[in-house]
Amino acid sequence: MARVAFQGERGAYGEMATLQYFSRANLAPKKSFQDVFDAAENGDADYIVVPVENSIEGSVSEIYDLLLQTKMSVIGEVYQRVRHCLIANRGAKKIKYVHSHPQALAQCRRYLQRKKLEPMPAYDTAGAVKMIKENKMLDSGAIASKRAAELYDMKILDEGIEDKKNNYTRFLVLSPKKVRSDLKAGHYKTSMIFSVKHVPGALFGIIGEFAIRRINLTKVESRPTKETPWEYNFYVDFEGHAQDRAVQNALKSIKPKTSYIKILGSYRKAKFH
Amino acid sequence: MARVAFQGERGAYGEMATLQYFSRANLAPKKSFQDVFDAAENGDADYIVVPVENSIEGSVSEIYDLLLQTKMSVIGEVYQRVRHCLIANRGAKKIKYVHSHPQALAQCRRYLQRKKLEPMPAYDTAGAVKMIKENKMLDSGAIASKRAAELYDMKILDEGIEDKKNNYTRFLVLSPKKVRSDLKAGHYKTSMIFSVKHVPGALFGIIGEFAIRRINLTKVESRPTKETPWEYNFYVDFEGHAQDRAVQNALKSIKPKTSYIKILGSYRKAKFH
After folding, report:
1. Does residue B33 sit in the same domain as residue B77?
2. A244 near A221, Cβ under 8 Å?
């Protein structure tokens, strides 16, 4: 069975995304995103599943920085619905405090205010459930997935407590091995990184190579190069496979306009909704 | 004297940026970015100074979300060098713990590892200095600006401890009042927000209106609309004033291609370095 690393404790949204993609897997929870990448690069995991973007919070910048450095390939994507539950110990009294990752607390801010519950920042969502269980905290709840409640055998006090319901996270699946994809099997997406020379219209010239070939860009993201202030690497996702003729022509035309270019991988487009 | 709100305690980098822009000001430190925007919108401050981007960490997404909602205008920009100090109480013994904002701790990660110091997350940089002082913590240090050490009369153990020296933050200055700018006085930049209709090449079409007029884009950033997943607002900074003829023509051509457009303001370009 494939060994798959994700960030967080058992029951994290990353675990749910992993099981959505692999159905069965040897799950390897890791403390940090760096640990997740290290696991695959050291041969301790065959695949990794990492969040790149949330529909409310936007891009996960740390992952973009790790994608720049990695030698792995992107081989797939998964959309995971984020549906938060208020979870407590079975013998819990009146809840006063609610522990979770600061982002999850922020996403349930209006709910917590309405119920007069005090938010307490924690290392991660499922980890907060584990903590209130291990410390038998009867005046505290935790915000995490339904799966986390079930795994730790805890009580669900409320479900779907997030302020905005359109809450989804897009995860990428990476592998240290190049995976040959069957071009006939469905629609593809490709992820790439490039930086442009410091001239007016350079980004325009590059986006133009896609536009004139009717290649649809689904995401454009910029991150500082960290070497020279206010110079950026651009991260682009587009529809199509790196082996498609139109894509190959676009990439050929783009190359002389960039100072750095890296194709992260082509992968089957995931269904959304 | 103008009342200017910024985020953090006295001695925060936001305060340094404020004093760089205003020289003299009635300083109004605020706990959160939301509080900073509220202060000006409620009439408690005449101006606000907020970080939009760091040369290492990238964009401050919370500020971009607040810029979307605000009715204020951007009237200026400032670059502030981020130079971290290790700060302690005057009677401090051997330091074991170092308190600061998680981002400052991350920016000094290699230094802390080398010195075998344990990082402890805190609410903000200058606030960590205040905390170790008020609690007379003799085994703890804090990471903050030199100004914070001076304001709280603390000892500087080490200076310039950040792992990367190219560490600058760009701040924007906003005002609830429209400020008429003298077009002859120096070079200008304009900040705007738009969203595009969901068609291939829409972003390209818009960037093209700038490119054909040789208007240089200095920053392109995208943020989720939060209404429809995977739809984005784009934040663009470009060189030129909204009253310039070329810019006016570009904006006129762009309008029918967008589903939303807002000019945040034109302001004198700040010197960098």
Report:
1. yes
2. no
